[in-house]
Amino acid sequence: MIILQMSGGLGNQMFQYALYLKLKKLGREVKFDDETSYELDNARPIQLAVFGITYPRATRQEVTDMRDSSPLWRDRIRRKLHGRNLKQYTEEHYSYDEHVFELDDTYLRGYFQTEKYFFDIKDEIYDLYKLRQDLITAETRSLEEEIASHPQTVSIHIRRGDYMTIEGGEIFADICTDQYYDAAMQYMLEKYPDAVFYLFTNDPSWAEFFCNTHSDLNIRAIKGNTEYFGYLDMHLMSCCRHHIIANSSFSWWGAWLGRDRDGIIIAPEPWFNNDHCRDIHTDRMLRMDPEGKLL
Q1: Which helix (H) or strand (E) holds 230?
Q2: 8 A C-beta contact, residue 159 and residue 252
Q3: What b/e readout covers 71-98, taking b as 16+ CB neighbours within 10 angstroms?
Q4: Whole-structure pTM value
Q5: What is the set of domains in the chain, with CATH numbers?
Q6: pLDDT in tens, 212-266
Q7: Is the separation of the CB atoms in 274 and 174 below 8 Å?
Q8: Torsion angle of C-alpha atoms 178, 240, 230, 187, degrees rounded to 10
Q9: DSSP 3-state assignment of 141?
């Protein structure tokens, strides 16, 4: 059996579930540990149910046995004397590793943020990640219709919030710069002069400032969806034809699920300020550096 640790927000959960499906296709028995990473009060919500998804859950005992983490005194003494019998794989640098498909009897930890893990079943994934109709609000329906009425729509996703902290800044800062977004929007306008931009961000108060500084463009900020309703933003992003994304798994999926699967996606390069996520970009993505240059 494989136990896959669920962690992170909706975008990361979607990557992990895509890997789960691929492992199932290979005949593995796979269950999720959806408790370990979500026990803290500030944990992100588990939201795969917005797609009507259910999954098998590992028991506490199954997780304990796989990770050799029993709190019993005799097991603690054994680990002191002989070391931990840890059946665990931890993803290195969040990059593709085909060895994952050879594993069994293993506890998997990682985000698995690359299309390479599910490329041969991507059509199934695309059809699976459709938002449940009963969750789509009247306001969202109205925005769907508005987006559909324009021939060339562009989603812009700007991640702030935790990306603006000191800790987050070490990893994420100075990648999705003003130059990046300005150059990406200009590229879209050169291709499609009638482009209509829809701005999505987790900082709604800042969104108004962004729109005001780009008042010469046909741009609208989508506001009102909090962390718990972010799936509505992802859905609306996917309704757009083209995309300018941030270095965010949420952003990645909003573009990957786009209604025009031949639409333009502009993505930042690098993804992080280290060598992580080397395989995050797909063949569809145009890579742009922080200075606004296409690579």
Answers
A1: helix 230-239
A2: no
A3: eeeeeeeeeeeeeeeebebebeebbbbe
A4: 0.91
A5: 2-123 (no CATH), 137-288 (3.40.50.11350)
A6: 888 889 999 998 677 789 999 999 999 999 999 999 999 999 999 998 888 999 9
A7: no
A8: -10
A9: helix
